[in-house]
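To: structure subgroup
Subject: Chain for Friday's discussion

All,

I'm putting the inputs and outputs inline so they're searchable in the archive.
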Amino acid sequence: MLIGIRKSLLDVCVASLSVSLLIFGSIAFFSSSFNSQGISVFAVSLGQSPVGVRIDFASKNIETLNIYALGLDSPAPPALSHHVIRNIVYGVGGGLPLLLDLYLPDKAQQPHPAVIFVYRWGGGGQARRHFAKQAVYLAEQGIASAIISYRSSGPATFPSSIEDAKAAVRWVRANAEEYGINPDEIAAAGGSAGAQLAALLGTSGGATELEGIGGNGTYSSTVNLVIAFNGMFDMTELYESTMHAGNHGFAGVLEAYAGGTLKQIPEVFKAASPTSYIDELDPPVLLLHGTGDKIVPFEQSLRFKQKLEAAGVPVELLAADGAGHGFFNKSPHFQETLERMEEFIVMYFNQ
């Protein structure tokens, strides 16, 4: 959907702000919130799903706008008080800066918990928008979020991705005081390949071969909770089932990530599997997976749950009956998974 904004309808005042938005194809009027970072807008357009838009601006000059959609197919949470700091350099990978976007509550009691979101492979320049809806919601509940970029394929094969993710955890912990974050309440969350990395952050604590040299090396890269949406946990089994199903396209994606085929580098597929590192010291895990997933089979989460339980690790599995890959970003599952994630964080971090 194309979103058009009529600048002539923007009337910015020192004491108050009123906004009108024209969405091509239908007109929506709505409430909005304003702070020094920008405008949060949530609207319902005729015949369409709710739309969320965030307008960031560097000054009161409304000519300098950076507009992006928070999501078009899921109910948007109400616009409450939070702010976003974008393009923070959290480390270095392959000689290049690694970036994150930090979503912070404005008036939450400090220190507050933090969630590090890891998106799926790919996504281009807008990749860090993938978990924006979840990050905004959590910030409005008093929970900080960092959405990170990382190296995932090409010349940067595994373990580059987990090295970057661990560097992000270390950065959050190293800068916890500055941003009002509790360094002992850091969760990792992700979807699909991002769930593989979030789970690997949870199970591979102490695996020095995966730490990398991305920065803040004196800080711990362990996380205190894991939340994994339709995750990949046994890469060897996933590759074999993918080939058996004749999905050679996805098998090729797995090969690009690992740097070769399973026959060529079985040790890399094993090292990239969160199941390889499970022990009783792992943090609690929340798994969310659609039973109708045709890309990453539901059995990946089911077997991961069984192995965690065998090790005595607290684990829950929310099974979405018949839902496919990426179900958590779509109606009717978006709100349910969002609230379940929040409940899980609050339960363990005593919000």
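Points worth raising on Friday:
The two ends are 37 Å apart (CA to CA).
The chain has two domains: 7-71, 82-349.

D.
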